[in-house]
Amino acid sequence: MRIYSLLLLFLLIGSNTIQPTFKKVTVAKQAVFSFIFDDLNTTDSLVKSIFDEFGLQPSFAITTNKLNSKTALLYKSYAEEGISILSHSHTHPKMNNSSSLDREAVLMELKDSKERIESYGIPVHGFVTPMSYMRPEFLSLLHTEYDYAFTNNHNDLYDTSVDKQHLARFGIESNISTSDHSIEKIMSRIDQAIKNKELLVLYGHALPSNYLDDLGNSRVIANDLRAILRYLKSKSDNNECLVLSSDLAIEAYYK
Ligand SMILES: [Zn+2]
Fold first, then answer.
1. Domain limits at 249?
2. What distance in angstroms lies between residue 227's CA and the mean position of ligand 1's atoms?
3. How far is the CA of 92 from the centre of ligand 1 (A)?
4. Coil, strand or helix: which one is 229?
5. Structurally, how many domains does the chain consist of?
6. Which of 65, 83, 194, 244 is disulfide-compatible with 249, CB 3.0–4.6 A?
7. How many Å lie between the centroid of ligand 1 and the Cα of residue 181?
8. Can you give the CATH number for the domain in which 174 is found?
9. Which residues surround ligand 1, an ion (CB under 5 A)?
10. How far, in Å, CA of 125 to CA of 114, rounded?
């Protein structure tokens, strides 16, 4: 009898442990690209005008301690055109493993920055973590505030298996040639994303970039951005991908 009970117990445990839990993963129909420019720089208007040349839309992740009634007017007009405005925190603190920030401080940064942007009548759905990476224990704080977030908890994946709060981006500044402005590496990453039907969000900062190349010149200049957009525009005109401002890009990719 005792052996029978034990067997029954094993069977019960076994049937519980082998119960598969399937996460529904849909495969995207095509690659989706988006661009985000961080930090709220005075050159954001130049970025916007270059995107206008190609009939495309960028997105801006703004650090709200630089947002005031004067700067907000510009971003509100962008939002009214359909350009996504994301929060990039209020004071731009590190939220990674070396950070001394606690959960309450992170939550304040998440809430406060969102409220400040919304107070100017600008909708906010996305968040970009300062310095790219958010410590996993903070991730649960995002859900009540944001539909999606770039936190670099993506396991090197750029597809629909990635949770919308765990997204990562691809840096224009870190992937352009340091010697001759070649965008070859960026073009081949774009090709790969198209082949694998990925969601690839590129990002930059000021234009010209404050990051310097081997010659001490700005690593990314306006014509580099034009070259990237020209390449991507040719792909999108050929129906190989979508290029969208980030709220729409996330919506289209995860639908
Ligand atoms: Zn930043």
1. 30-253
2. 24
3. 6
4. helix
5. 1
6. 244
7. 23
8. 3.20.20.370
9. 38-39, 130
10. 9
Is 4 inside a domain boundary? no
> Model-level pTM?
0.89
The DSSP 8-state label assigned to residue 231 in this structure reads H
Residue 166 included in any domain = yes
Q: Give residue 220's identity as a one-letter amino acid code.
A: V
What's the rounded Cα separation, in Å, for the pair 111 and 228? Answer: 34
What is the per-residue pLDDT across 96-121, written as a single tens digit (0 to 9) for each? 988 889 999 999 999 999 999 999 99
- The reported pLDDT for the residue numbered 11 is 46
3-class DSSP state of 105: helix
Residue 72 lies in a domain: yes
Q: How far is the CA of 131 from the centre of ligand 1 (A)?
A: 6
Q: Name the residue among 148, 140, 172 with its Cα closest to residue 252.
A: 148
Any idea what the Cα angle at residue 123 is, between residues 40 and 64, rounded to 5°? 30
CA dist., res. 87 & res. 119, Å (int): 13
Type and span of the H or E element at 84: strand 84-87
Ligand 1 midpoint to CA 14 (Å): 49
Q: Of all residues in the chain, what percent carry a pLDDT higher than 90? A: 87
Length of the chain: 255
Residue 2 included in any domain: no
Could you tell me if 206 and 43 are in contact, meaning their C-beta atoms sit under 8 angstroms apart? yes
Instruction: State the distance from the centre of ligand 1 to the C-alpha of 52, rounded, in angstroms.
Output: 24
Distance, CA of 146 to CA of 118 (rounded, Å)? 13
* DSSP character at residue 51: H
The Cα 158–Cα 154 span in angstroms is 7
Residue 3 pLDDT level (bands cut at 50, 70, 90): low
